[in-house]
Amino acid sequence: MGACAKMRQSPEAPDGQREAAMKTLEQTFRRPIAEELAFVCDRLKADEVEILGKALRRGVLEIYKAVVLHELTTGRIDRKEASRLLGSRVVERVLARQSATGSERSQRRGPRKIPRRRKK
Description:
Largest sheet: none
Helix content: 40-55%
Shape: flat
Strand content: under 5%
Distance between the termini: 53 Å
Order of helices and strands: HHHH
């Protein structure tokens, strides 16, 4: 497993033996990925390796963009650094969208805390 990979721990597992619970095929709502890959390869007349390479590249790029934009919105990097990493158009588009909605950040810092009612 890579250095940056994180796994969610299952609360039902005993301490020290917690692992991420994987859903079975019956629990998911998506078709098996092999069917989707076969369809794309058939329609594009392309090899599976080529399609998987493109999918991996697109997926990593989307995650990279999301991380850089998150770092920008939380103030960990400045606009100049984000523009250097993603390009000024992407950064300006995100900042314009944020200012149009009137929010400084798109995510809350933590769960909302609702005060409990006191018993009388």
